[in-house]
Amino acid sequence: MSEQKKTRTTVDIYGQQYSIVGSDSTSYIRLVASIVDDKMREISDKNPNLDSSKLAVLTAVNVVYDYLKLKDELEALQQKIKNEEG
């Protein structure tokens, strides 16, 4: 079994630099970081008095919420396709 090559990518999220190690391309890791940065800035604009820890937690909650909604939509579409085939 071959091991996937890991790459280290430095990204900037909300003014802080992070070194992320992963098997995805550098451009993909930068895209993910950009989305997190955008979401943090969006939440910060609406809640300018949040400290960075609370901002990070609210960002995580928002991202997981979006993920679960999309997952539910995908499962509903898969079920609809399955029902139409059967």
UniProtKB/TrEMBL annotation:
It is found in: Cytoplasm. It comes from the Bacteria. SUPFAM superfamilies: Cell division protein ZapA-like. The keyword Zinc-finger does not apply. GO terms for cellular component: cell division site; cell septum; cytosol. Keywords: Cell cycle, Cell division, Cytoplasm, Septation. One of its GO terms (biological process) is division septum assembly. InterPro entries: Bac_CellDiv_Activator, Cell_div_ZapA-like, Cell_div_ZapA-like_sf. Homodimer. Interacts with FtsZ. Activator of cell division through the inhibition of FtsZ GTPase activity, therefore promoting FtsZ assembly into bundles of protofilaments necessary for the formation of the division Z ring. It is recruited early at mid-cell but it is not essential for cell division. PANTHER family: CELL DIVISION PROTEIN ZAPA (PTHR34981:SF1). This is Cell division protein ZapA. It comes from Bacillus mesophilus.
